[in-house]
Amino acid sequence: MADDPEAAVKRIKTWCRRFLGYNTHALRYAFIGYMARRGVAAQLVARITGHVKLDYILHYTQRVRAEEILEKINLS
Question: Cα separation of 45 and 59, whole Å?
Fold first, then answer.
């Protein structure tokens, strides 16, 4: 029997919140950061995450890279 996609999404959201302490938006945000730190192109990240516009991805990936640079400067 095929499961209702909306019910499945609701179960995933509930599980994430209950057992991980995060909502799915936070997990998506973390995934975008993970991809950015590994140098994945913003266009590919946007496509994977379903963002139509690159504005958000570019803004976030630039922030991630700026934080990495600041960490390197502070460690020197």
Answer: 12
Q: How far apart are CA 6 and CA 38, in angstroms?
A: 32
Instruction: Please check whether residue 5 lies inside any domain of the structure.
Output: no
Q: Considering its fold, how many domains does the chain have in total? A: 1
The pTM of the full predicted model, rounded to 2 decimals, is 0.63
Q: Which domain holds residue 45?
A: 24-75
For 7-59, write each residue's pLDDT tens digit: 888 988 898 889 888 888 888 888 888 888 888 998 999 999 988 888 888 88
CB-CB contact of 13 with 24 (8 Å): yes
**DSSP character at residue 19:** I
